[in-house]
Structures are given as C-alpha cells and as structure tokens.
Design goal:
The chain has 643 residues and is α/β, with parallel strands linked by helices. The chain has four domains: 101 residues, Rieske [2Fe-2S] iron-sulphur domain (Rieske Iron-sulfur Protein, 3-layer Sandwich); 164 residues, Thiamin diphosphate (ThDP)-binding fold, Pyr/PP domains (Rossmann fold, 3-Layer(aba) Sandwich), CATH 3.40.50; 147 residues, Rossmann fold, CATH 3.40.50.1220; 176 residues, Rossmann fold (3-Layer(aba) Sandwich), CATH 3.40.50.970. The protein has 20 helices and 27 strands. The strands form six sheets. It has a six-stranded parallel β-sheet, with helices on both faces. A six-stranded parallel β-sheet has the order 18-17-16-19-20-21, with helices on both faces. A six-stranded parallel β-sheet has the order 23-22-24-25-27-26, with helices on both faces. α13 crosses α14. The relative contact order is 0.08. The protein binds FE2/S2 (inorganic) cluster (FES). The site of FE2/S2 (inorganic) cluster has 10 residues, from loops.
Length: 643
C-alpha cells in the first residue's frame, strides 16, 4: 500500500489539551495536542464508531464522547485490559506546520448501489429528487459518482414530500420515469403523499428508501420501520434488497413495472447492502419491453362508427389519458366538425384558439363546454376518467375509448366501450367513417359561444370591491404574459378552479394533482418540470395556503438556479374551505392564515419577489418575473369573493 504525507494543522492552530476533527480526502481524523505532542487517530471509535475528534482529553486520555471509552491520544491504545485501538497515523512537526502520513485511498470498488444506479439509468431514470442521510449514504454515493460522470441529476430538496411531488410532476410532464429518495423511517414516510399523487394520476415514479442494517430490521431500532408494509398500498411493488438478492433484477422489475403499469414502485436498501461489492451487469428495457399498440376490437369499432355516423351533434371530450394522442383526435374532430372539450386534467390538450376547442368541462370549466355537452346528442370520450369534477352527463349516449379495461364504464354504463390505444382508435374511427357525415360543422357555433363567454369575462375583469384583485383579471393577465408553450403547475382551491375557468391556453401544458387533489403540489411539481429541461418556461400557481406547505423549497430552486415563476393568489385564507363552510350553513372557522410578506420572503431566500396590490401593477410584475433568469414569486393581493 502506498502512502502520502499531508499537512493537517498550522502551528498554533490547535491549543494544547484539545482535540479536533480533520478531513483529508476520505480520511476523517481525530488530531490531538497534549503536553506539546501531537497525535492522529482514525476518527471512528472502535466501540460503535463514535466521533473521537468531538471528544475531550481528560487525565491524559482521549475520551470518546458517546460512551466514555479512553484511548492514548498519541498511540490510540486503550488502558488495560482493553485492546481495541483506533488506527494511529505517524505525525511529524515541521517548520511550517503539522503533517501526517496516511495510506493512499484504494481504488473505489463497484457496489450494489452502483449496479442499481446503472440499471435504473438504463431504464431512463436520469433525475432523482430527495435527501441524503444516515441510512442511504451508500446509494447516495453511487448517485454522486453517476452525477460526476454527467449521467444523472440529483436535486437535494428540503422535505421528502417535495421530492415525491417533483418526481410526480416530472413524470406527468414527460411520461418518463423519475425517482425520489429518502432515508429509513421518517425520510421515507414523508414521500408517501407525493407518491399517492403519482399513483392515482398514473404517473410512473420509482421510490428509493434507505433502511437500517438488515441484521437489525424488525427489532425496533432507531428509524426501523417496516417500509414494505408502509408502502404496500401506494406502491405496485415494494421489495427490500437483501444481502444475496439478485439486486439488478429487482431494479429491472421495479423500473419495468412502474413504466408498463404507469404506477409507483419501491425499493428498500438496508444500510450495509448499499456498499457491498457487486459485479452484476446492468441491463435495461432491451428484450424486456415490447412495443404496444392496441387497435379496437372490430365489433366495438363498428358500433362506435355506427353511432357517430348517425349523430347530429356529437361532442368529443378528452381527458389526460389522451394527452399524447391529440393529433389523431383533433384530426378526427376537424373531419367531422365536432367541438372538443377537455376534462380539467386535460386542460390545454386542445388550444382555446382552435376553432373547435371549447375549454374545460365541469366545475372548473367554461360555459362553452357545458353548452356543447347539454346540446349534444352523442359524447365521444377519449382517455377521460369520468370524475365527478368533470360531470359528463350519464344520460347521453356515450362512446368511451380507453386502453384500461377498468376505466370503461367505471361509474356508469356507456353505450359503447372501446378498449384500445386512444390514438390508434381515433385513427381507426376516422378511417371507417363514411365520406358524408350528417353532423353539421360546429365551428361557427363554437366562435359564437366564445364571444359570449369573453364578453362575460371582460365584465368580471372590471369587478372591484376594493378588497384585492379578482380571479378573472389575474388569469387574463397571466394568459397574456406567459409563453404560448409554457408549462404551468397548478394547485388546489379556488385559485385553481379559477385558473381552469379563466386562463386561456394556447399550447401550454398544465400539471395538477388530479385525483389526489393535494394542496402544495404546484411549486415542487414545477421543480420537477424544470428538472426535465424542456427549454420551456415553467410557472406554478397556488393560493397562500398551498404555497405555505412547501415554501422553503424556494431555497431549493435558488440553489439549483431553477427558472420558475410562482404566481401566488393570496387572499389570506383557505378560501375554498371558507366557501364550503358558508355553503353548508356553518360558521367560517380556522380558515384564516397568518402570512409573511411573501415578496420579502422570496428575496430573503435569494429569489426575486414582487408584491402586487393593484391590477395596474400586475402585468408589469408578471412580465418582469417571467424574464428574470432564476426563481421568482409574484404575490398578488386577491379578493376571495371574486373567483
Ligand atoms: Fe466510543 Fe462507544 S462509540 S465509547
């Protein structure tokens, strides 16, 4: 073994009678100065690894701070009868300081964690959000190596809940697999809410948990929780990588399941397994995943084409399940001149500027969409889940197209359920329709309805009770300020309902916590969207209640230079809950919020903040925030009654 000499102290730097910790490369040393002599021991106490450099010198002995074991400060020898001594390194006092001779570090050995990281990267996981800590350091070190090679981006957040929401936002935006990472116990349980968000919205996410050493699992040790049990509901699969496990195959299975099933999967890494040597080859999807295109069964297709051919006023409704198939659906709509409404989760899948686009249907929707639903004689629903929020009328004849057999007729029977890939079936219907369709082209009617709605919106923009800016005005300004292809992550509450109703989309993409409806989603999801590095503008929108949940993540955005603008619709309360309490004839109770000055808060975090109290200032503040290169926040004083 080769050795090298390293300077560890200047003269006079360490007083006589004291001990300190010095790091040289990956060596951590306890350096002592006692009665004019220097000593240098390995910092780890032989008993249980206590930090000797944080101990004290008493009676000529170096005393470990954890349980009081004593060692000679210059030789490391314990007093008799003990014989367990920390490594001791030769010290030399030279003219310019104190030096130590240390063995050179061995070449890094490939570990189980390295093999697992290589495998997940083969499946396309190149972005991980999380927190490194006590029980996941080995896996963290493998990710550090991958990041140093330029293969992986790791984002260290302030709370693991944000890591899971960021991974969910990334996956919802890209359809690719993202990962989140936490320690044993609380670091992993903090991931659960964001993972449920991904699960119920069918976004693929891989959760990675550190764990206590396998020999202590199940014995109630510090941070020892049964993580497989804790994740058994949220994760499609949850496995602990044990010593001797076929670890790369467990990673292959976790990645494949998450992608193929559009679900959450989970792996648990006991502490010592993470750093065991591994020569297991990494592999990926080659030979494990086949292309999937599912055409419609002929009889379902015939029934659907028959109904659509006879309809006079068909309406197409698209949900998030049709997000990646909109070209085929819009081509079909244009062919038959049918209006297209979206679910709230599908907002933006057809532009509001398209002559057949009629916005969102339902509680967060426009009167245009509800008009066409009420006037329709047939609904053709692509990739929509028929949530209450959307309110697709069950009394109309419905053709429902979905790749998930469980989604068909989920809440009530439909006239025709077509099982198949949404884009494939849209093209099949298009090809099978007769040349002359009875339905009239509805473009003019769509334009008329938009004119009526825009006139109503203009009237609402002018509303002013002197208690803040109304939502119609806020989202008109935001519609005009953001890029046409921006990514917007929204939250929950009245601000989000108003966004659905008033914000007019061009080619923007909207991310939301759909079925879980989790408050606090928007800002960490925007972090995930930014990490996908699409080159598009990233904006998040929430109320003050939602932003408050993960406000400290603004420092994460500053740390990584995330160019995100947060639009804060601030009414000083949980406005939707106040409204629900009133509507239930209850007293408004415990919904008020005590807030900081959010613009000052943003500036304090190292971001840029603007406070907007008057509509005349809003456009300028939004534009300034959006062009600023870095995280920004626009705190808008809003009127809780003007939603
Ligand atoms: Fe040092 Fe126990 S760890 S005495």
């Amino acid at each position: 073994m080769t050795e090298s000499v390293h300077k560890i102290l200047e003269h006079g730097e360490l007083d006589d009678g004291r001990v300190t910790t010095v790091t040289v490369g990956h060596h951590t040393l306890a350096v002592t100065h006692h009665e004019g002599r220097y000593g240098c021991l390995d910092n780890h106490c032989p008993h249980q690894g206590g930090p000797l450099g944080e101990g004290s010198i008493e009676g000529g002995k170096l005393r470990c701070p954890w349980h009081g074991y004593d060692y000679d400060p210059t030789t490391g020898q314990p007093p008799p009868p003990f014989d367990d001594a920390p490594a001791c390194y030769p010290v030399e006092v030279r003219e310019d300081g104190v030096y130590v001779t240390l063995p050179d570090e061995p070449v890094r050995t490939r570990t189980v964690s390295d093999a697992m990281v290589e495998t997940m990267m083969a499946w396309g996981v190149d972005t991980v959000f999380g927190i490194v800590g006590h029980s996941n350091l080995g896996f963290g070190d493998a990710m550090r190596e991958a990041q140093a090679r330029g293969d992986l981006s790791f984002f260290g957040v302030r709370h693991e809940g944000a890591a899971a929401f960021a991974a969910s936002g990334y996956a919802k935006l890209t359809g690719r697999l993202a990962a989140c990472f936490g320690i044993a116990g609380p670091g992993s349980t903090n991931l659960l809410t964001g993972l449920y968000d991904a699960k119920v919205d069918r976004a693929p996410v891989l959760a990675l948990s550190g764990q206590v050493p396998s020999g202590t699992i199940g014995r109630g040790a510090f941070q020892d929780l049964d993580l497989e049990a804790a994740f058994s509901d949220v994760a499609r699969t949850s496995h602990t990588v044990l010593p001797g496990s076929d670890h790369t195959e467990l990673m292959n299975l976790a990645c494949k399941t998450a992608l193929v099933e559009s679900d959450v999967t989970h792996l648990v890494f006991p502490d010592e397994v993470q750093i065991q040597p591994s020569d297991a080859p990494a592999s990926g999807p080659d030979g494990r995943v086949a292309p999937r295109t599912s055409p419609a069964p002929a009889e379902s297709l015939d029934e659907a084409v028959g109904l659509l051919s006879a309809a006079q006023r068909p309406l197409i409704i698209v949900g998030a399940g049709a997000r990646r198939d909109m070209d085929a659906i819009i081509a079909l709509a244009e062919r038959i001149g049918a209006p297209v409404a979206t679910t709230f989760k599908g907002k933006g899948q057809i532009s509001d500027a398209h002559p057949l686009g009629c916005g969102v249907l339902g509680r967060s929707g426009t009167p245009i969409a509800s008009w066409f639903m009420n006037e329709s004689d047939l609904i053709v629903a692509f990739g929509a889940s028929f949530a209450n929020h959307t309110g697709i009328s069950p009394y109309k004849p419905i053709i429902q197209i979905d790749r998930d057999p469980m989604a068909l007729g989920r809440f009530h029977p439909v006239a025709v359920g077509v099982l198949g890939d949404v884009g494939v079936v849209a093209r099949e219907i298009d090809d099978a329709l007769p040349a002359n369709m009875p339905a009239a082209d509805r473009r003019e009617e769509v334009a008329e309805r938009w004119a009526i709605w825009r006139s109503e919106k203009d009237a609402r923009v002018a509303d002013d009770r002197g208690k803040g800016i109304g939502s119609a005005a806020i989202f008109r300004e935001l519609s005009e300020a953001v890029d046409q292809d921006a990514i917007l992550a929204v939250d929950v509450g009245n601000n989000t309902y108003s966004f659905g109703r008033y914000f007019e989309v061009e080619r923007q993409q909207v991310l939301m916590s759909g079925y879980l409806g989790s408050i606090g989603f928007s800002f960490p999801a925007a972090m995930g969207a930014w990490a996908a590095r699409t080159g598009r503008q990233v904006v998040s929108v929430s109320g003050d209640g939602g932003f408050g949940q993960y406000a400290m993540e603004l420092t994460t955005a500053v740390k990584y230079g995330m160019n995100i603008t947060h639009v804060l619709v601030n009414n000083g309360e949980l406005g939707k809950i106040s409204k629900e309490q009133r509507s239930a004839d209850l007293d408004v109770w415990q919904t008020s919020l005590h807030n900081p000055n959010f613009a000052d808060f943003a500036n304090n975090c190292g971001a840029r903040g603007w406070s907007v109290d008057d509509l005349s200032e809003l456009s300028g503040a939004l534009k300034a925030a959006l062009v600023h290169d870095g995280p920004t926040l626009v705190d808008i004083s809003s009127d809780a009654a003007l939603v």
